[in-house]
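Lab notebook page, bench 4
Experiment: in silico fold of construct C2
Operator: M.H.
Input chain length: 435 residues
Purpose: comparison with the prior construct
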Amino acid sequence: MNDKPAKISTQRKVLLKRRHPSAKLERLAINQLKQGKLPYALASYMELAKKFPKVLAYHIQYSAILYYLGKREAARKAIDKGVAIRPYLFKPTTPDPEGKILRLRGVQKAFFTLDHIGPAYEVKVTGGGFSTAHLMDLGRFWSIDYLVSHGNLPADRRLPSFDIIVNSIADADVEDDSLKTISDFAKMNPDRPLINAPDRVMQTTRDSNYRRLKDIEGIIFPKTYRHACGNFSLDELDRFVQAGDLSFPFLVRESGTQSGKSFDLVASLEALQGRLEKPIQGDYYLIEFIEEKFREKYFRKIRFFCIDGKLYPVVCHVDQIWNVHGFNRLQFMAANEWMVDEEKRFLSDPKGYLGKDIYDRIRSLYEIVGLDFYGLDFTVTGQGDVLIYELNPAMRHSFDHAKNFPYMGRHMQNISDAFNDMIVSRLGRLKLPAT
């Protein structure tokens, strides 16, 4: 779910080329960050944010470095200050846009931080949203990237005009307050198309998905319960586990996280107790572990994106460990030609690969989920049931794997095209004023 909101916008590039007062210092800050000289970059961005307070990008960079260096409280103050002054980045990237997109992201609880890529550092968001970097073609549209926080959006009179709203908040565990703010804003702007209604996003928490999907015939959604972190006696935990009819081993995952690194398989009450004692910002999910082997000794994760009600294949990843995630593709899957062939078959003909009944069953979930964009991770059991691992919009679309698995490229492009076609379709229903 990495996003890079602090890329230099078209406006900033123009200013850097000119003799703008900030240009020299910004070039210095950019180079310091690329070289990993974080204390120097921090000082440079702090100075930029003070001298040019209306440039939100400087506050974002400054806050991201603070957070990465462990200064969480200072990072929150920095981003809150920037958002209070001007909460949006305007990207007029083409002289003849097909429409102006108001892209909404929540930062009331989410943070900006740094992603360490080789010797360089880039800004990303800690959680709560999905990246539109490869979904929205800014060669076709103008984008207004607005940071939602503390109810600011509905009353903001500084907001530039827009044609369509893209709500990129994806995790209600992180940005539930921001979703409520967007819901109020959408009611004030009923004439503007909205992609991913916030009320629908709020229903995609893991425990909510369990409650609404668990009784669908042919669908298996593992038992999922929310539990607070803290110090609990073994007797208290035992009562909770028994009330949920959970059996060891089961999964423990931090709420508000999507990474495969944020959850563990626990095999005893003592292990559960130790995991829940770790200080975190939210709660934990306790999730039933259903071990479904593929070809008797492997594990498989299949992913679809659902865009405007249609399914688009993403991956069919076969692995040797139960925690199937992309970081294992190069080390294991690429070395097994039959696994690659398995994925090629899925990507080329997902309905044929799964069978019509299973494919239609997955597609019918759209009627319940009701989101314009979301992802679904699953496998198919030996009995023909769909075992769902995850369902929400908090899934990253990129071309990263296509660099090493070129056959994926056209399928990833299909996803990008579908998202942009959806935007154009929504704009087509709107009578835009002449510009």
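Observations: The chain has 15 helices and 16 strands. The domain at 223-288 is CATH 3.30.1490 (Dna Ligase; domain 1).
Next step: discuss at group meeting.
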